[in-house]
Design goal:
The protein has two helices and twelve strands. The chain is mostly beta strands. The chain has a single domain, classed as Jelly Rolls (Sandwich), CATH 2.60.120.10. The chain has a six-stranded antiparallel sheet with strand order 1-12-5-10-7-8, with no helix packed on it. Strands 2-3-4-11-6-9 form a six-stranded mixed sheet. A hairpin with a 2-residue loop joins strand 7 and strand 8.
Length: about 170
């Protein structure tokens, strides 16, 4: 494994906090790890976000922050086609729901850095990770996400996603 460093700060962040009625409910449900109860609330959010013309950043992705409360973050990520994140980790709890488009998620073992799984993520599918210990090192759930098409996904983290650790492949 190569050198670790903090997430790339060049990704654009846009704030939409307190603009959507369903965000508070979604935030609390995900915070309490009731993942199977989230779908009706996400359907309401999907209706609300159709009214927003999110800025489109070509050849990259952007974060649209919906909620930052109690240390937890809820955001939409808008992806251009064929964009990949770096290989990176997250805090203790993470959740990804694909609203539209097509993503591919590669999971890694971090020491040594080895691919353990590659999974397509299709519309209306989700995945989550809960690290059972109190490790707030932002090196949990090490993965890389690639957009196959222009996509929009909902993400929830138990910490600031810009603090995640990036892993170099040497």
């Amino acid at each position: 494994m190569g050198k670790n460093y903090l997430m790339n700060k060049s990704i654009k962040n846009y704030e939409y906090t307190d603009e959507f009625e369903s965000v508070g409910e979604i935030h609390e449900i995900l915070k309490s790890k009731q993942y199977d109860d989230i779908l009706p609330h996400i359907k309401n959010l999907k209706k609300d976000i159709k009214k927003i013309n999110f800025p489109h950043n070509q050849s990259t992705y952007s974060r649209h922050i919906l909620s930052k409360k109690d240390g937890y973050w809820l955001l939409l990520i808008e992806w251009d086609k064929d964009v990949s994140t770096s290989i990176h980790g997250h805090p203790q709890q993470s959740f990804v729901y694909l609203i539209k488009g097509s993503l591919e998620v590669k999971s890694f073992e971090k020491d040594p850095l080895v691919i353990t799984n590659t999974k397509p993520l299709h519309e209306d599918e989700f995945l989550y990770h809960d690290q059972s210990n109190d490790n707030d090192a932002f090196d949990n759930c090490v993965h890389q996400i690639k957009s196959k098409t222009k996509s929009l996904s909902l993400h929830f983290y138990s910490g600031d996603p810009s603090k995640g650790i990036i892993f170099d492949q040497d």
